[in-house]
Amino acid sequence: MKVIVNVSLKEGVLDPEGQAIKSSLNNLGFEHCSDVRTGKQIILNLDQNSETEVLKQAKKMCEELLVNTVIENYEINILKD
Amino acid sequence: MRSGVVIFPGSNCDRDMIVALRKITGKTPIKIWHKEYDIPNLDLIVIPGGFTFGDYLRCGALAARSPVITSIKNHISRGGTVLGVCNGFQILIEAKILPGSLIRNKKLLFTCRETTLQVQSCIENPFLSGLKIGECLKFPVAHNEGNYFAPEDLLKQLKEEGRIALKYIKQKDNEKNYNPNGSTEDIAGILSNNGKVLGMMPHPERAINYLHGGTDGLKFLTNCVEQIIG
To answer: Are A38 and A73 in contact (CB under 8 A)?
Structure first.
């Protein structure tokens, strides 16, 4: 089963990369763009059929390695074929 | 004094740290490979700088899940002393040995230059106890993710417990870029709650010879060694 983990910075955590992208977008003429936040996407392939088990495993992976919960939030989605 | 320097794939300040410790103690520190579960009893373990595992995922994240970290945690629970420099600090944070987070430098630039640090009033610890509170030290920094971030409640706790060890400080009133990474309250290094673990972004091992431009690192590390061996 394919799982998509979206990792984003928590509100209030400085995102200098997002700010640099925003300023570049503004310079390109997209002056209505008032904020940009960046994040990352991690795609996992788990050899398991139970959705509950897959979600449980992915959550454990996020807490133990994939996400720094001090500064990041995450969202887990199972990719349906 | 028995010391050890931990080496991961991508560590690159291990040799400099070994040279510095050998110069001070007269003994060569042991090299500890990241796959080792059993390490001998040591007076000091240093996690040096570098780009362990290519800084993949987050700086220090993969190193912090290596077998050697379990041995380091055991060493700490026995009251052992650990110094983490630069990537070593990032690893200590990722291993949850020290709290908070080290995020991208505010200006998005890899910063490599000399900084001035000030010794803060903090809990008893083997790293700064022989130095004066308010004393300034000049060490270089070289990092991209050294911006210390702590949520407000953690910051309050660190202050109350006297765990902020080193801060970047202005040399002149109008100096603007004295803080190389935009860290919260100019924090450069923090201590564990027992004072035996110090994580810091600046590199003392890169300031041990006049040819380096200064010897404050030698002063700092010599003091650590003296405090540890009593």
So the answer is: no
Mutate to test the interface with A, among B53, B62, B65, B101 (most CBs of A within 10 A): B101
> Which domains are delineated in chain B?
3-229 (3.40.50.880)
The 10s digit of each residue's pLDDT in B30-81 is 999 999 998 999 999 999 999 999 999 999 999 999 999 999 999 999 999 9
Other beta carbons within 10 Å of B130: 14
Domain boundaries, chain A: 2-79
SS (H, E, C) A16-81: HHHHHHHHHHHHCCCCCCCCCCCEEEEEEECCCCCHHHHHHHHHHHHHHHHCCCCCEEEEEEEECC
- Architecture of the CATH domain A2-79: 2-Layer Sandwich (3.30)
Question: Does A43 touch chain B if contact means CB atoms closer than 8 Å?
Answer: no
Task: Give strand pairing partners of B6.
Answer: B32
The pLDDT value recorded for residue B230 is: 81
Q: Do residues B117 and B167 make contact, with C-beta atoms less than 8 angstroms apart? A: yes
- Evaluate whether B149 touches A10 at the Cβ level (below 8 Å): no
Tell the residue number behind the tokens 């431009």, with chain if given.
B213
Separation of alpha carbons B143 and B188, rounded Å: 12
pLDDT tens digits, one per residue of B90-114:
999 999 999 999 999 999 899 999 9
Smallest CA–CA distance from A39 into chain B, residue: B57
Torsion region of A2: left, alpha or beta (phi above 0 gives left; psi -120 to 50 gives alpha): beta
Q: Which residue of A has its CA nearest to B65?
A: A65
Given B13, B59, B86, B122, which residue is catalytic? B86
